[in-house]
Amino acid sequence: MASFTLHGIPVSRGIAIGRAHLLKPAALDVKHYLVAEDQIEAEVQRLSAAIAKVHEELQVIWKELPADAPSELGAFIDVHALILSDPIVSEQPLEIIRTRHYNAEWALLTQIDQLSAQFDEIEDAYLRERKQDILQVGERILNVLTGSATQMPRTSQGEEASAHMIVVAHDISPADMLQFRDRAFVGFVTDLGGQNSHTAIVARSLDIPAAVGMANASELISQDDWVIIDGDAGVVIVDPAPVVLEQYRESQNKLLRERKKLGKLKKTPAITMDGTSVHLLANIELPEDCSGAMDAGAVGVGLFRSEFLFMGRTGQKSRLPSEDEQFESYRKAVVAMKGRPVTIRTLDVGADKPLDKGEETALNPALGLRAIRYCLAEPQMFLTQLRAILRASAYGPINLLIPMLSHAFEIDQTLLLIEQAKAQLRDAKKKFDQAIPVGAMIEIPAAALTLPLFIKRLNFLSIGTNDLIQYTLAIDRVDHEVAHLYNPLHPAVLQLLATTIATGAKAGIPVAVCGEIAGDTKLTRLLLGMGLREFSMHPAQLLAVKQEILGSDITLIEPLVKKILRSYEAASIAESMERLQAL
Ligand code: PEP
Ligand code: MG
After folding, report:
1. Of 531, 532, 526, whose CA–CA distance to 563 is shortest?
2. What is the pLDDT of residues 435-493, one digit of tens each?
């Protein structure tokens, strides 16, 4: 067969080379027949048992989550468990068997198809992603019914074969991804998915090359085809010519050698060639992530996304973690960081991180009751979190970070609630850091354009570029159809970034960047040239960024960055960016 190349969205970096392992949707093989009257209850039982089995499967996956599994995974598995418990999935198909006499698979598919059609009518990116979750749950039940496995084949072809297997699928659920990880697969390709789809997020955290949004790759690629994934370019080469294969093997080996070399920088301080010291901090989701942060040599935690403690609570007594439960988690993080500061961001729910999947979704969730807006609307819940964080500050340095602020009155109300939480702790004779620094995420253009309001009231700023770009360019960060427009180098984004960093510096208050761009080595020099001295990122990216810093001379970078900030044309910005890299 002739070699061909497919283009999609790059979501996880690196090169993977292996044989394709196709995962076909179970729905394709489903039998359709009518059940005899006296067999109906038995057929209902067969479907009920399959649903119960999937419940068990999910529980097992939960229990076997490795300690170092990305924290999002637990939440994703919980979403599937919730869907499975919903009567529209667990009861309605049983009714279809009883009333229409369809066999179990047919009944299930009928219901899933109907739900899917309902989702198709809603033009909302967030809800579209939930449709995929429902399809994935349906597929799991079907797999149990038809006896086909969603798991990777056992290593019957020998370790060698499984060690170089690339998963090709229409879509992959995050829960299934975890099993693939145990099987040492080397990459994955899917037809669906955007830059921030659940599966893409997991791939990035696992550091496995991946390309998604490949349209019909799962139809074009055949079982056992040789496949190369270029995770940086979002390109998949099928049945490559020997010379191409050789080239990619060489690049892959080079990458591996580079990675090994990076390991030597763990203890090296991040200082530029001109002697400027830079703080490299870690982004974490759960306290357990602190060990990875320490291993990578992070000087602290720049962003603890506390909402992950609030998500994935299926099966627990309360929908929200109690003050003591939260306190334990925050204390654990602070103790694990051994005196290095931990910046805890208060609850940032809403948008693509709903607190409760059962809750009605806002019409436009990214612009809705999100983050601090939600917390100010639920003051008792917010006070509980604030008390828990304050109590943990008795065990080590904590900075309190507030997401999504845009109005001065929101800052004032937040500060008032912090004072109230402090007063409650004083009354209860509980210890805490009386002078705990409080800072704001700068992630709404309105905030970046009214910095004096923030600087007057707060102790530090942290720029959330993931959202700042989303809101500046009006691009939903989870919608793959507009992913190509999501550009950190848009001059409007650059202006807001530079202004925030410069204004903070002038006022003498610390400014960090904690969005994904902080971990992108292609942007390190740009940020240094803007004056950024605090970068917070996933621990896996920290050493590569450090290497970039060690080889940078800010005195040479600054004039070029000034030029970039005066440019409006993309071509001129791109040209200066290239020159910046070549310095
Ligand atoms: C951001 O918006 O850049 C950020 C760091 O927060 P999150 O990605 O959790 O919205
Ligand atoms: Mg954000």
Report:
1. 526
2. 999 999 999 999 999 999 999 999 999 999 989 999 999 988 777 778 889 899 999 99
Tokens of 554: 């800010």
461 close to 440: Cβ distance less than 8 angstroms:
yes
Reading the block at residue 79, the tokens are 């979403």
User: What one-character DSSP code corresponds to residue 430?
Assistant: -
Angle between helices 408-427 and 379-392 (to 10 degrees): 60
Q: How many CB atoms lie within 10 A of CB 580?
A: 22
State in Å: Cα 467 to ligand 1 middle. 6
383-404 residue pLDDT tens:
999 999 999 999 999 999 999 9
**Local confidence band at 143 (pLDDT 50, 70, 90 cut-offs):** confident
Q: Edge-to-edge, what's the strand order for the sheet holding 15-23?
A: 4-7, 235-238, 226-230, 15-23, 165-169, 187-190, 210-212, 9-12
Percent of the chain with pLDDT over 90: 57
Q: pTM of the predicted model, to two decimals?
A: 0.70
**Type of residue numbered 528:** L
Residue 439 CA, ligand 1 centroid: distance in Å: 15
Between CA 439 and CA 352 the distance in angstroms is 23
- Decide if pLDDT at 405 tops 80: yes
First to last CA, the chain: 44
- The pLDDT of residue 411 is 98
Directed axis angle between helix 72-85 and helix 125-146, to 10°?
70
In this structure, are residues 187 and 226 in contact, taking their beta carbons and an 8 Å threshold? no
Task: For the chain, give the mean pLDDT.
Answer: 87
> What residues contact residue 440 under an 8 Å CB cut-off, 6+ apart?
401, 402, 405, 411, 447, 454, 458, 461, 462
133 lines ligand 1 (CB under 6 A): no
For residue range 252-280, what is the model confidence (pLDDT) as tens digits? 999 889 888 999 999 999 999 999 999 99
**Ion ligand 2 nearby residues (CB, 5 A):** 443, 464, 467
Amino acid at 252: Q
Query: What distance in angstroms lies between residue 189's CA and the mean position of ligand 2's atoms?
Result: 27
pLDDT at 27: 44
Residue 329 in this model has a pLDDT that exceeds 90? yes
Give CA angle at 44 (41, 45), nearest 5°. Answer: 90
* pLDDT-based confidence at residue 196 (cuts at 50, 70, 90): low
d(CA 114, CA 47): 18
Residue 505, amino acid: A
d(CA 66, CA 363): 37
Burial profile 167-191: b = 16 or more Cβ within 10 angstroms, e = fewer: bbbbbbbbbbbbbbbebebbbbbbb
Query: Sign of the CA dihedral 496, 501, 504, 510?
Result: positive
CA 540 to chain centre: 13
Cβ(140)–Cβ(165) below 8 Å: no
Per the rule left: phi > 0, alpha: psi between -120 and 50, beta: everything else, 466 is alpha
Question: Ligand 1: which of 348, 404, 476 to mutate, judged by most atoms within 8 Å of the beta carbon?
Answer: 348
Q: Tens of pLDDT along 219-228?
A: 899 878 999 9
- The distance from CA 368 to its chain's CA centroid, rounded to whole angstroms, is 20
Instruction: Examine the pLDDT at 575 and tell me if it is beyond 80.
Output: yes
